[in-house]
TrEMBL record:
Top-level division of the source organism's lineage: Bacteria
Species this protein is from: Candidatus Woesebacteria bacterium RBG_13_46_13
Group of enzyme by EC: translocase
Swiss-Prot/TrEMBL cofactor(s): Mg(2+)
Membrane topology: Multi-pass membrane protein
Major place of residence: membrane
HAMAP family: PPase_energized_pump
Name of the molecule in the record: K(+)-insensitive pyrophosphate-energized proton pump
Length: 744
């Protein structure tokens, strides 16, 4: 803070104030949500079962997370003693630098993990408070009221993400100043690690329940989606919350904080190079601008459907949300340019922020093209259902592959913009420009998370309505909101993937920069770029490229094993006298217990693989090979994540199109083929694909933290011992993932 002017210090305190405002706004939304009527006793009975199942799952998952976080907290504390802190830390804290940085990094790790946990846990709880109240509004015939409750319950999670992410990064910088990167890495790693747990666990849970319930209920028995006679229905509804609320919220939160971390790390390099402090202060203020714009936009959503001017009035819930997103985007862009000219005296930073915002906007029509039943790709899948499930699945996979290419081109063009803006200047400016794109892309996180969480809230409300027997008028309102929710979830999944790639790319650049600084300090040859023309780097690149495939394989097999258990249990319960007739209530809690156990079984294995493999590659093949490893992970991770997310979403919407009455509607051969296609696509779009987002960032942050250690001790006895230990853990994780039985 001593290097900042009085005005800049005011800017930073204002950023803290904006973060606090976001948290107050979130509190107000919570109060508004729980003040609404919960509806009939029958609806509340279903809601209580969902609430109980979700809370039980989160308690069990939290215990699993703590088992992993405690030893890592110790490791992070000791890491500073293995490699001395940076020269900036020594200048800031003097002879106590090592101890202060060790404590700071450890506390930052705990805070990052805690914030990520709070976003997932509290966000999911408020979403569950919202779903039954949406049903009540629909029963009362209040379409705008149902939209308002669903969207605002989702906005709570978005503003919690904004407030905590901005508060954590800013306060750490204010405390540590130039030494902030030493602590920020701990903050980013804590949030990312918890997000990985919540994303994987939630994804396995939701799809094990969904696939198992659909295979028996829909395919074998011909029952509707949320028929109360199906013992897997409650677990399915619980899964929407732990997967799409808790999992996605933690996922986007860690992207939000990781882009702040990378921007500050690269900004500090430019500060040393130029002496200008705006490289550090600017991204924090722009994030604060984005938070204020998100508050404005999210407040406006209920207004658009009844707007006085017909020209701007929204015709449905989807258009109302998109209209508010556009309002927030325009506000952020205008204020970012105004601040850039006023404070930094230039336009390039604001232009790159704008490109990031536009990148997020572009994914709306891009995702819609590949997943909407109104467009060619989904129509081709629908046509393929006429000839059976095999052609349906093949057509869906082809759509996913095509979309991967389109998404990579869009991301590449965004990255190229940084190259063009800073053409002729040192490479560090271009790298910082990529971080600015990430800052812009996630500046409207409040809107993005609100739209994503809206999806499972509307889905749950629809399920509660069907299980409690609402009338056709109410069902029509909930069905429309559910359909809109499917679209918004698909868009935010694409956005989460793209933001993960941008964040990981910025961290990758930070990796190269950081390694060079450590090597210069130790008097070694400085790494300026990553070659892929030596045997060790090629090995690193190949192994890194294979990791997303290994990760996806284990995730999908975990769903298959869990779903098989659900199928057995649902079939057993259908044989109980009275269940099929609707006179006996199924034992929903048994399926909830099965899916909870299935989600936990492979959780530790997957996290262990993500943490150990980069360390093994770095210690055996050295730090440049580790850089190539990261390049391979980012490349195939992006391609695989988009492929699976879009393939699953397209097959899901093809099924919904047929269910609307086309090709014979429900119960037809085409419908049965589409159900099987959707069953294959579900774990792709909701488990394996989304899990790659936090995995990419965990791998990158582990590498960034470990790189100085590898540089300093790559030939030591300690390094050889570490390799042996890491290999044992890695082999154990692989072996554990291949166990046939699901723990109960």
């Amino acid at each position: 803070m001593s290097d900042l002017s009085y005005l800049e210090q005011i800017f930073l305190w204002s950023v803290v104030g904006v973060a606090a405002t976001a948290l107050v706004y979130a509190f107000w939304i919570w109060r508004q949500t729980i003040a609404q009527d919960k509806g009939s006793e029958k609806a509340q009975a279903v809601w209580n079962a969902i609430k109980k199942g979700a809370q039980g799952y989160l308690k069990k998952q939290l215990k699993t997370i703590l088992l992993f976080l405690v030893p890592l907290t110790v490791v992070l504390f000791l890491s500073v003693y293995i490699v001395p802190p940076s020269s900036e830390a020594i200048a800031r804290f003097g002879s106590n630098a090592t101890l202060i940085v060790a404590i700071g990094r450890t506390i930052a790790f705990i805070v990052g993990a805690t914030f990520s946990t709070l976003v997932g846990q509290l966000g999911m709880r408020v979403a569950i408070e919202g779903n039954v109240r949406v049903t009540a509004k629909a029963v009362a015939g209040d379409h705008n009221g149902a939209l308002t409750v669903a969207y605002r319950a989702g906005t709570f999670t978005g503003m919690l993400t904004d407030g905590l992410g901005l508060l954590g990064g800013t306060v750490i910088f204010m405390v540590f100043g130039k030494a902030a990167p030493d602590a920020l890495l701990g903050f980013g790693f804590g949030g990312t690690l918890v997000a990985l747990f919540m994303r994987i666990g939630g994804g396995i849970y939701t799809k094990a329940a969904d696939v198992g319930a659909d295979l028996v209920g829909k395919v074998e028995k011909g029952l509707p989606e949320d028929d109360p006679r199906n013992a897997g229905v409650i677990a399915d509804l619980v899964g929407d919350n732990v997967g799409d609320c808790a999992g996605m919220a933690a996922d986007i939160f860690e992207s939000y904080e990781v882009t702040i971390v990378s921007a500050l790390i690269l900004g500090l390099v430019l500060f040393h190079l130029t002496g200008n402090t705006f490289w550090i202060v600017y991204p924090l203020v722009v994030r604060a601008i984005g938070v204020l714009s998100s508050i404005l936009g999210t407040l406006a959503v209920p207004i658009w459907e009844n707007f006085p001017l017909k020209l701007v009035r929204a015709k449905d819930a989807e258009e109302a949300m998109f209209r508010s997103y556009e309002l927030s985007s325009i506000t952020t862009i205008v204020l970012a340019f105004a601040f850039a000219f006023y404070y930094a005296g230039e336009w390039k930073l604001a232009l790159l922020n704008t490109i990031g915002i536009l990148l997020a906007v572009v994914f709306n029509p891009l995702t819609s093209y590949f997943t909407s039943y109104k467009k060619r790709p989904v129509k081709e899948i629908v046509e393929a259902t006429k000839s059976g499930p095999a052609t349906t699945i093949l057509s869906g996979l082809a759509v996913g592959m095509e979309s991967s290419v389109a998404s990579v081109i869009v991301v590449a063009l965004a990255l190229a913009s940084s190259y063009l803006v800073y053409l002729g200047m040192p490479p560090i400016y271009m790298l910082y420009g990529v971080a600015m794109i990430g800052i812009g892309m996630l500046s409207l996180t409040g809107n993005n998370v609100a739209m994503d969480t809206f999806g499972p809230i509307a889905d749950n409300a629809n399920g509660i309505g069907e299980m409690s027997g609402v009338d056709k008028k109410a069902w029509k309102i909930m069905a429309e909101l559910d359909s809109v929710g499917n679209t918004t979830k698909a868009i935010t999944k694409q956005l989460a993937i793209a933001s993960a790639v941008i964040a990981a790319t910025a961290l990758f650049f930070s990796f190269v920069t950081d390694v060079g600084i450590v090597q210069a300090r130790l008097g070694l040859a400085v790494l300026k770029d990553i070659r892929v023309s030596t045997i060790d780097t090629v090995i690193g690149f190949l192994v890194g490229g294979s990791l997303p495939f290994l990760f996806s394989s284990i995730s999908i097999k975990a769903v298959a094993k869990g779903a098989a258990k659900v199928v057995e249990e649902v079939r057993r319960q259908f044989k109980v006298p009275g269940v099929m007739e609707g006179t006996v209530t199924p034992e929903y809690e048994k399926v909830v217990s099965i899916t909870t156990a299935a989600a936990q079984k492979d959780l530790i294995s997957l996290v262990a693989i993500a943490v150990t493999l980069p360390l093994i590659v770095g210690l055996i093949f050295k730090v440049e090979a580790l850089g190539a490893f990261l390049a391979g992970v980012i490349l195939t991770g992006q391609l695989m994540a988009v492929f699976m997310a879009v393939a699953g979403g397209a097959m899901d919407n093809a099924k919904k199109y047929i269910e609307d009455g086309h090709l014979g509607g429900k119960g037809s051969d085409a419908h049965n083929a589409s159900i099987e296609g959707d069953t294959v696509g579900d774990p792709l779009k909701d488990t394996a694909g989304p899990a790659l987002n936090p995995m990419i960032k965990v791998v990158t942050l582990v590498s960034l933290i470990a790189a100085p250690v590898i540089v300093a001790y790559e030939a030591s006895i300690g390094a050889k011992i570490a390799i042996a230990v890491l290999l044992v853990i890695f082999v154990w994780a692989i072996k554990q993932s291949k166990a046939v039985e699901v723990a109960s």
